[in-house]
Amino acid sequence: MQKLELPENPMLCSGHAACPGCVEALSVRHVLATLGPDTMAVIPPSCMAIIAGPQPFSSLRFPVYQPTLEAAAAAASGLRRALDSQGKRDTQVIVLAGDGGTYDIGFQCLSSAAERNENILYFCLDNEGYMNTGAQKSSSTPHHAKTTSTPEGKVTRKKNLTEIMAAHQVPYAATASVGYLPDLVRKVEKAKAMRGFRIITLLVPCLDGWGLPDDGGLAASRYAVECGAFPLYEVEDGRRYTLNHARRTRPVSDYLALQRRYRHLDEAGVATLQAEVDEGWERLGRQVLMSRGEVAVQGLDWA
Ligand SMILES: Cc1ncc(C[n+]2csc(CCOP(=O)(O)OP(=O)(O)O)c2C)c(N)n1
Ligand code: SF4
Ligand SMILES: [Mg+2]
Asked: Which of 60, 102, 242, 293 is 20 to 30 A away from residue 24, measured at CA?
């Protein structure tokens, strides 16, 4: 077992406003400890903005700018350029945004910043819904999950953000989970050492929105990876795929059983989700093999 040392003066302090047991606060605490104090964050409206606290109070010991929900990646781009013009090229500009602010409302800004290869490190804190406003559905909410705006379960599937970002051919797009902490810390260190547009999507099981007990966030973080619903992987330059946790060790039903948002599902519904996870896992496996040159793409020659 690897012991991780955290600095004595955390950049995210105790007394913050997260729900007790929230995995988002834990994840961000480790992210910030790995990045260090020469960091500036853009935090759009989200649970993270609540955790950071209302002016003049803050649980964060470094500069933070809160833009509108649509504008996080544009605000970070501007901040980066202002710092560069002052010669502060080593200061990391990060975004700490929710999935609603990333997959949906801030998506046009995000796509543009990725296309311009802005030198920013974007963290999507993916709790699979609009949680601080009462757990409504986002395009990251998985198929069949109940939210307050999909009371009978969501009828469409979760958008695949990492694939969309990889298609922008950015230097780095990865997924991570605080349930696999050494992997998360390694990815943050790796992204910190790179230049250009980098994005890490962190799965954040939401106690309230997913219907988990106060101490259930970490188990859900691990089960999501172990059943393949949230694979841990990295894509470099849109081409080189690496799967970081290559074996699935439990059925999707174990993961669903932890969460109240799936409690309405019958056996057929569970089987549908298992089939969808299997399909996604196979597609990812093909990408990994193709990027190693182990699978030839058939039938794409010019006529
Ligand atoms: C354009 C716009 N629409 C709606 C809102 C209201 N609003 C503030 S935060 C939020 C939810 C954001 O969800 P997400 O980004 O997933 O963050 P979470 O609360 O889940 O951490 C909404 C809808 C807003 N601020 N701006
Ligand atoms: S609503 Fe969910 S993600 Fe937000 S602070 Fe509470 S447990 Fe954390
Ligand atoms: Mg959210």
From this structure: 242
